[in-house]
Design brief:
alpha+beta, 7 helices, 6-stranded mixed sheet, Serine Threonine Protein Phosphatase 5, Tetratricopeptide repeat, 2 domains
């Protein structure tokens, strides 16, 4: 799914009360169908506009449709269709497992060999080592906290309301760019990964001069521009 500028949209809302009812209902229909292994229904709900990378609204496992496909041991063709529709192989559940990890665990439990499904689900190679990605995740979270903590959600920790975008998925996105809309902010964060640097531009559309641009490396985050929106 992309925003008006063509970037992938990260829908990181954990609290379904922050979303319109039709979006929540579509999320539940998709999650129910995937959990039951009803793939024709899954594809129909996706055709109707459900978000392929979102987990069950309000759920804590963060199991996406692709995770459920891996758990069910679907054919490689079904998994590939989900990927072709935008399902991310790099996205993790709440236990930090990709769909590939889930498939490998299920195969090991059943004594099965690696097969075509596992090959399809294998995440693309990352350009950065895991410890660098983890450092970027940490510093990005600090930037997001700095903009919205204590400002939105009546003093709640924003990480209880939102799942911040994981930097690792940028390796799988066209142009390595995404848009993270933040409910209540009337704006959000546009991220772009350029080699080992993460560029984070953020703004509130109803506040003039709110724009900020942070350059994030594994060493930390630096504000390099502001006031441009």
């Amino acid at each position: 799914m992309a925003d008006d500028g063509g970037d992938f949209v990260w829908n990181g809302v954990l609290d379904p009360a922050r979303l319109i009812d039709s979006v929540v209902a579509a999320g539940h229909r998709l999650a129910d169908a995937a959990k039951m292994g009803e793939w024709s229904t899954v594809f129909r709900v996706l055709d109707e506009g459900a978000q392929v990378n979102w987990w069950r609204p309000g759920g804590t496992a963060w199991f996406t449709v692709l995770h459920q496909a891996a758990w069910h041991g679907v054919s490689a063709e079904v998994a590939q269709e989900l990927i072709d529709r935008g399902a991310l192989r790099t996205q993790t559940d709440s236990r930090a497992r990709t769909a590939y990890d889930v498939a490998m665990e299920r195969h090991a439990t059943a004594g099965r060999q690696v097969d075509a499904l596992c090959e399809v689900l294998l995440p693309p190679s990352a350009s950065l080592p895991p410890h660098r990605v983890q450092a970027l995740d940490r510093h990005l979270a600090e930037v997001i906290d700095g903009r919205i903590k204590g400002v939105l959600y009546d003093g709640l920790d924003p990480r209880a309301v939102l799942r911040y975008p994981p930097v690792g998925i940028l390796h799988e996105l066209p142009g390595q760019r995404l848009w993270f809309p933040v409910p209540g902010m009337y704006g959000g964060f546009r991220l772009a990964l350029r080699e080992d640097e993460l560029h984070a531009a953020s703004w509130c559309r109803v506040v003039g001069g709110s724009g900020q641009h942070h350059l994030i490396t594994h060493h930390g985050a630096t504000l390099v521009d502001e006031g441009f929106v």
